[in-house]
Specification:
The complex is a heterodimer of chains A (about 325) and B (about 290).
Chain A (H helix, E strand, L loop, with lengths): L2 H17 L1 H29 L4 H12 L2 H34 L2 H4 L3 H5 L5 H42 L3 H6 L4 H18 L1 H13 L4 H24 L7 H10 L23 H4 L1 H6 L4 H22 L5
Helix pairs in contact in A: 1-7, 2-4, 2-7, 3-7, 4-7, 4-10, 7-9, 7-15, 10-11, 10-15, 11-12
Chain B lengths: L4 E10 L2 E11 L4 E5 L6 H8 L6 E6 L8 H4 L3 E4 L11 H11 L5 H8 L15 H13 L5 E5 L7 H15 L5 E5 L3 H4 L5 E6 L2 E7 H7 E6 L4 H6 L4 E5 L2 E7 L3 H7 L1 E3 L3 H9 L4 H7 L1
Helix pairs in contact in B: 4-5
Chain lengths: ~325, ~290
């Protein structure tokens, strides 16, 4: 990739941000604001029942007396749980964004303007994918960092009032560098893991005559139901392998924890809540070694070629 | 200088309809070509093929590039306005200008602002808040600020008031056009463009009915106005078309015996609109055979 290509790509990604400021910029900031408001309200209301903050201070002192390991689990675990809210909403936003990304300009015919610029169709598709895999995660990550820092600052104030050392009780156990770097890595690997789903949405978006998101859901759902019905009729049993369920499962079993414990068959995977669950770079990187990851990427590549093919013919006829 | 647009046996079918039925074209640089035809004649199909927006059969080369495969490279040298204003409605004016500046190596912001100077388009406005005419003004300013070798305008002044239309064509001619550039225009408002055209192409049912320079057109066709008593004499010379105006008969001839024609009455250059009616109109179906 030369310089010009990179410049074009970054300009096109900026275009996406200009087109969807609400979903990309204001949604993560809004979640931050809601979480912080909720925390502040809880503290204010709690303060009314908790005269002189005796109860709160007691809890903070208890936390300060916990062994280091335990403190780390509690503080970083709490921070991670909060970021999980961001991840879930981010995924929804990305799915809807991708489904509309190659459809909206076809609908309002502004595609003719975009096609009048010296930008290839492959580059256009790449910019949508880059926005979903890099831009949106980066903006959500920024909002998460902001939320974490403000929460820790609030905790610092309460810690000082309670007479505990805020650095030793909150900031060090939060293990921010490790927490944040695992999160960033996780977001990138997650994007690779979900690439076939992303590519499927782009593919549907590139040709769907209307309602691309519904078409993107209806096709695998229809196939899954048809396959179920067929095997049920012919074999009196349920299929062991189902296209629709494979997609659903991949969506549910993201790299990022909190979504890791959905298992079809009715039982939750028994996962012990420990640090390794969300604080381990190796667990995240382990996904890169899985066969499913590479099969998914190969499928994604085919679908992306399909999307470019349809994009090229979008103004035809 | 190379040929700007070269087409050989250009074809496009939609089901059984032949939108383009084997067209040959050679458009050199430094021309302003009017592509005129009734609705559904194949104008837009031809333009889309030239711009790499649709597929086709046959040979087509635009500035030495294959439009179907090299649209992105072609668009560095070509700019176009489609038949309706289609700027993205969510964008602000300054965002569109920024994007074009970053994505187009031959775009000049100064020129764009110069063309927008007299309009009511403000940088902070959203496209969706602009009137239809203002969107067209912005789009024309964007396109004219690109130093392109081929400019394609598909009904460029639709929805604009007469002041702006005059202004636009004057800008196009005085500030934009030169020997290196080619401009290809389709429009229904023929009267507005006829004095700036250097070449004229009539298209109907996917076939070229006329393809020549304006000079040739003026040499080849002549309009004769006669009193009713001389009408039969004029008819005997085999006109392409006849119409009545204030009791006078007006005949259109194709390069006949000019001396004979002039003897019958007043002659002048036919307007493009009259030529269009004469060559494409349904009334003169037999005459069309000779024109083809």
């Amino acid at each position: 990739m030369n310089n010009r290509t990179l410049n074009t790509l970054s300009t096109l990604v900026r275009r996406e941000l200009w087109e969807s400021p609400v979903a990309f910029k204001w949604a993560p900031l809004g979640i931050s604001a809601l979480i912080l408001l909720f925390v502040v309200f809880s503290l204010i209301i709690g303060g009314r029942f908790d005269a002189e903050m005796a109860f709160t201070s007691d809890m903070l002192r208890q936390l300060a007396e916990q062994p280091t390991e335990q403190r780390r689990l509690i503080v970083s675990g709490a921070l991670f749980s909060i970021s999980a809210i961001f991840f879930q909403i981010m995924l929804l936003i990305i799915l809807f964004y991708l489904a509309g990304s190659l459809f909206d300009d076809r609908k309002d015919r502004s595609i003719l303007f975009w096609k009048s610029l010296p930008v290839s169709d492959g580059m256009t598709v790449a910019s949508k994918l880059a926005s979903a895999c890099l831009l949106v995660p980066a903006l959500f990550f920024g909002a998460i960092v902001l939320t974490h820092v403000v929460l820790l600052l609030i905790a610092t104030v309460y810690g000082l009032l309670a007479g505990v050392n805020p650095i030793a009780t909150f900031w060090l156990p939060a293990s921010l560098p490790r927490l944040w770097s695992v999160m960033l890595l996780g977001m990138l690997v997650q994007a690779l893991w979900l690439m076939p789903i992303y590519a499927w949405l782009l593919f549907c978006s590139s040709w769907a005559p209307r309602l691309p998101i519904l078409i993107a859901i209806a096709i695998p759902a229809g196939l899954a139901i048809a396959q179920h019905a067929w095997t049920l009729i012919t074999n009196f049993s349920l299929p062991g392998f189902n296209f629709g369920l494979i997609m659903l499962k991949r969506l549910g079993s993201g790299v990022l924890p909190m979504s890791a414990n959905i298992e079809f068959g009715g039982n939750l995977q028994s996962i012990e809540f420990n640090e390794e669950l969300f604080m381990n770079h190796a667990t995240v990187l382990g996904y890169l070694g899985r066969l499913e990851m590479w099969i998914g990427l190969a499928v994604a590549l085919l679908l992306l070629f399909g999307a470019v093919w349809f994009r090229r013919r979008a103004t035809d006829g | 200088m190379d040929i700007t647009i070269k087409a050989r046996n250009l074809k496009r079918h939609f089901g059984s309809t032949r939108a383009l039925d084997g067209i040959d074209l050679d458009i050199p640089p430094g021309r302003i070509v009017g592509l005129i035809g009734p609705n559904g004649a194949g104008k837009t199909t031809a333009l889309k093929a030239i711009l790499g927006l649709s597929s086709y059969q046959g040979e087509l080369s635009v500035l030495g590039l294959n439009p179907a495969r090299q649209r992105d490279r072609l668009m560095e040298q070509v700019c176009f306005i489609a038949d309706v204003a289609v700027l993205p409605r969510w964008a602000r004016v300054h965002q569109i200008i920024d994007l074009t500046e970053r994505l187009h190596p031959r775009f000049s912001r100064e020129r764009c602002m110069h063309f927008l100077k007299n309009s009511k388009v403000r940088p902070e406005s959203r496209i969706r808040a602009l009137s239809k005419g203002m969107v067209v003004q912005l789009h024309l300013a964007l396109v004219m600020a690109i130093d392109a070798r081929l400019l394609v305008l598909d009904e460029p002044t639709l929805g604009l008031d007469i002041l702006f239309r005059k202004q636009f064509y004057s800008n196009l001619l005085n500030e934009y056009f030169d020997e290196e550039r080619t401009i290809l225009i389709t429009t229904h408002q023929v009267e507005e463009v006829e004095h700036i055209l250097t070449d004229l192409i009539f298209i109907r049912d996917g076939k070229l009915i006329l393809n020549s320079s304006m000079d040739e057109v003026h040499e080849r066709y002549v309009e004769l106005m006669v009193r009713p008593d001389q009408a039969d004499q004029a008819r005997a010379l085999g006109p392409l078309h006849e119409r009545l105006l204030f009791g006078r008969h007006i005949f259109l001839f194709e390069s006949g015996d000019i001396g004979q024609i002039k003897a019958l009455g007043e002659t002048h250059k036919p307007s493009v609109a009259d030529l269009f009616v004469a060559l494409m109109g349904t009334e003169s179906a037999p005459a069309l055979e000779t024109a083809e």
